Model the fold of this input.
Amino acid sequence: MAVTHGETQQESQQESQQESQQEARQEAPGSMQERRKGDPQEAARRADQAPHDSAAALRGKSVMITGAASGLGAALAASLARAGAHLVATDIRADALEHGAAAWRALGVRAHTIAFDVADPLAARRAVGEAIDVMGRLDVLVNNAGTDVTAPIGELSEDHWLRVINTNLNGPFFLARQAAAHMREHGGGHIVNVASTAAKRAWPNASAYHASKWGLLGLSHALHAELRPHNIRVTAVIAGGMRTPFLLDRFPELDPALLQDPANVAEAIRAVLSMPPETVVAELTVLPMHETSWP
Done:
């Protein structure tokens, strides 16, 4: 069969096109990978696939804890120090802070103490400023300080009422306002408000305490809604009865066996603080198995 010059040229062009297509297919995967490497969305996807290391989540973070001299505050400070967090421990009792601070420093973290009354708005502003100055930044604020006056309403003085409300509700507001302003400027943070089962139900002779804790729970959820768009997580902790001086000194008839170790609540808070950054726990309830103040 005779083959013309035109047919030979056409076949040559077809072979050349096939070779080019084969080479393109061979190069495409690599080329696509190279293009994906420069794609910000692809980089974000790869970052999201990296496993979250909760054990290292708090390492090097700066945490301010109020009411840190005893009870839950001291237990939480110890837990976070073991996790590698640097601490700003505060309390109204200056001398009571130093013993704990020495133990926390022995774990290899920085620990700075501030004695002030959270109910004083000027002192609260100064304390947050000092924490930032000393640590360089503030990543976490834990509003843990609290007080109570157990008395029927007819015996509850105006001073008693204001002391409870100022410490348990106004103080967290003063501190959260200052901390949130700093956190917004630095890309985010976490605020934890320690409430109580008293924020969910009521019993006699505790009107000031209930009002303050119900208010604190409401404040916490309001801040959660307001600050979440600014990458600031806000968590309310509903803590059931604990074996702490705050409870046992006022109610010595309580059976300590029915209460929980504050270290257990501290570990629950540490777990919340160690969550992946894409997740927030708005409310956490931690109860002893046999506490009578909760169903």
In short: The two ends are 98 Å apart (CA to CA). Residues 57-286 form a domain with the Rossmann fold fold (CATH 3.40.50.720). The longest strand covers residues 232-239.
